[in-house]
Amino acid sequence: MKVSPGRFAESAWLDYKIRVKAALPLPETIRHVAGSKFEPAGRGFKACCPFHSEKTPSFFVSAEFNTYRCFGSGCGAKGDVFSFLQDWYGISFSQSLQRASELAGIDPPTNASPRNHLSVARQDSNRPRPSGPPVEQGPHKRLPTAAALPPIPAFADTPKPGLPMIVFDPERKRRYSIAPSMVHAYRQPGGEARLFVIRVDKADGGKFFIQAGDPARNSSGGTEWRLIRFPGNSLRPLYGLEDLPAWEASGSGRILLVEGEKTRDAASRLLPLKDTGILSLSNFGGGSSGSYADWEPVVAAAKRLSISGSRIDVRIWPDADPPIRRADGSTVDRQVRFAQSLASSFRGFVNEFGGIPGRLRISKVAIPGNPTPGWDLADAEKQDWTPQQTLDALNKFETIALRNLNAAGTEASKDRGNAAPDAVNAGNPKPKAEEKYDRLEI
């Protein structure tokens, strides 16, 4: 019997989902993502629920079926590894599949797009859909980022570490009282806050993160924040945009991209913009969300600088995450994957906005020494690194490769392959032409 290409593609994606799910035991995955601590319980494991605050564990994982369910009063969280990632990060099914595949180190099939896969479409249709019309951002219509959220009104009590705050979840119609351990404000280039990323440390040693914005007064006159979930196909904001006007005024053209808000704050202190001319930024959601970063304000400013004669030099400094080891013995370099994700996304915006007329270079920092797993610039700051030490490390960088880029930007192909003389290629051999790679160093 002849199998149609469509049925073959659907079968390949179904097999892919099964393999990814089997490669991610739920206790280990939830412990890695949410910091939950599990203990054996019957035919599975139990822990305090990562989705609500509790002292007695009511969150159970079945070892047989690799599924979870919370029996806590009013919670009702349940599902598999994909639904956990969906609910934890507030993302679509297709995005959770992508994130799960990165955690598992399993590449997707190359014969079809997951967005066209029928089972993905069915599962996505069961998720809450974004409300409101798309907004115009650049050449294409996209759903809004934090920039489209309403400004924080004057009456709102700005979230602060250690001070309780009330958060309303409009999807579950529940209110939570939480005490942040960290608060990071996502601001507009003018300095106006629109979104707060809140870290909460749990009594059992775990942690979780939420996004809060669009506050209102509650019945007692206090501030009630709304839990923000970005729709699956929306762009995500950049952290550190309040420094964009000063960076453009400096004319330096130097940008540093790191993982996470805490690391970005450390980078901005180690490399002060006023002294170095370096704009430090991080993307919302970390390593697996680079393709959803909203680069529009940065690319627009970079294009203006380039027209005035500045060279745009983007360095990507990943966390020192160890490689993922696959079942077949191969490995996935998570540092390179993070750099590729950000670089491809940034280059895509450059192409969409007509290219950058001058020189554009995007490269990955070669992390010095043999750091501990997960080491980043926040750790460097704790180790009393000096600005000069940080600059010296920043000036040793690697060329990497981008897969599957289209040829939309003629500026992007100019000077391709001309690596800077101080580029370091340790462990990164030159890509083969037949692999259809495009050199990142431009």
Tally of strands: 23
Share of helical residues: 25-40%
Cα-atom Rg, whole angstroms?
A: 22 Å
Summarize model confidence as the mean pLDDT: 77
In terms of DSSP E residues, the strand content is 15-25%
Tertiary shape: globular
Sheet with most strands: strand arrangement: 9-8-13-12-11-10
Give the end-to-end Cα distance, rounded to a whole number of Å. Answer: 49 Å
Largest sheet: 6 strands, mixed
Derived structural class: alpha+beta
Can you count the helices?
13
Low-confidence stretches: 1-8, 112-141, 403-442
Word description of this protein:
The chain has 442 residues and is of the alpha+beta class. 29% of the residues lie in helices and 23% in strands. The chain is built from 13 helices and 23 strands. Helix 3 packs across helix 4. The model is unreliable at 1-8, 112-141 and 403-442 (pLDDT under 50).
Key features?
globular; 442 residues; 23 strands; disordered N terminus; alpha+beta; 6-stranded mixed sheet
Q: Could you give a short description of this structure?
A:
29% of the residues lie in helices and 23% in strands. The chain is an alpha+beta fold and 442 residues long. Strands 9-8-13-12-11-10 form a 6-stranded mixed β-sheet, with no helix packed on it. It has a 6-stranded mixed β-sheet with strand order 14-16-15-17-20-21, sandwiched between helices. A 5-stranded antiparallel β-sheet has the order 1-2-3-4-5, covered by helices on one side.
Fold topology:
Blueprint: H1 5-22, H2 26-34, E1 39-41, E2 44-47, E3 59-62, E4 67-70, E5 78-79, H3 81-89, H4 93-104, H5 118-125, E6 135-137, E7 140-142, E8 165-169, E9 174-178, E10 182-187, E11 193-201, E12 207-217, E13 223-227, E14 238-239, H6 244-250, E15 254-258, H7 261-270, H8 273-276, E16 278-283, H9 296-307, E17 312-317, E18 324-325, E19 331-332, H10 334-352, E20 360-365, H11 377-382, H12 387-394, E21 397-398, E22 401-403, H13 410-413, E23 437-439
